[in-house]
Design goal:
Largest sheet: 5 strands, antiparallel
Protein name: CENP-V/GFA domain-containing protein
GO molecular function: carbon-sulfur lyase activity; metal ion binding
Distance between the termini: 51 Å
Number of helices: 3
Family: Belongs to the Gfa family.
Keywords: Metal-binding, Zinc
Helix content: 10-25%
Structural class: alpha+beta
CATH class: Mainly Beta
Number of domains: 1
Strand order of the largest sheet: 4-9-8-7-6
Shape: globular
Mean pLDDT: 83
CATH architecture: Beta Complex
Strand content: 15-25%
Pfam family, one: GFA
């Protein structure tokens, strides 16, 4: 059974079938402290696809992706290599705590997510979710963007509550918060 046929995956996973045409990409955070490479099939740019189709880049509507501007692809873990600066990579766990989100401790760039645990739960091969805005070269305007809207309604619901300063004000005003 391929990862495209797993009974626990959504009907249409956010990654395409491999086409046999591969492209390699260099990525890095804004300051360059973290550098990494990925290999994808099909490629993300039409000029590399040999007429066999492109890898549509996912624009997710979950609260985190919307806030940081992620445009994501999902390469297999075996097709990603971090070459420099792992000591500068930090993780942030959202309320679901299923996929650590990576960012650079030096410049704050949003790099991607470790979705291996999520893939395991879905019965799929291990993948990362990588933000293509970190591409060293490449025009993001030339990408095929696929809007993904199912995440916004997935539990747990995003809610951080009022800031501490407002909580104090609300308590003083008798609102019960």
């Amino acid at each position: 059974m391929t990862d495209q046929q797993s009974p626990t995956l959504p009907p249409e996973p956010p990654w395409p079938q491999e086409t046999g045409v591969w492209a390699s990409y260099a990525l890095h955070c804004h300051c360059g402290a973290i550098r990494y490479n990925m290999k994808l099939s099909p490629p993300i740019f039409e000029s590399e696809a040999e007429g066999k189709g492109v890898y549509p880049v996912m624009s997710c509507n979950c609260s985190y992706c919307e806030r940081v501007g992620y445009l994501t692809v999902h390469p297999l873990v075996e097709n990603v290599e971090f070459t420099q600066g792992l000591e500068h990579r930090a993780e942030y766990l959202t309320s679901g705590q299923t996929a650590p989100l990576w960012f650079c401790k030096k410049c704050g760039s949003a790099l991607g997510a470790d979705i291996r645990g999520l893939m395991e739960k879905m019965g799929a091969p291990p993948r990362y979710g990588l933000n293509v805005r970190m591409l060293k070269d490449g025009d993001v305007k030339k990408l095929t963007i696929k809007e993904v809207t199912f995440m916004k309604d997935m539990p747990p619901k995003y809610d951080i509550g009022p800031p501490e300063s407002e909580k104090s004000r609300y308590r003083l005003s008798g609102s019960g918060l």
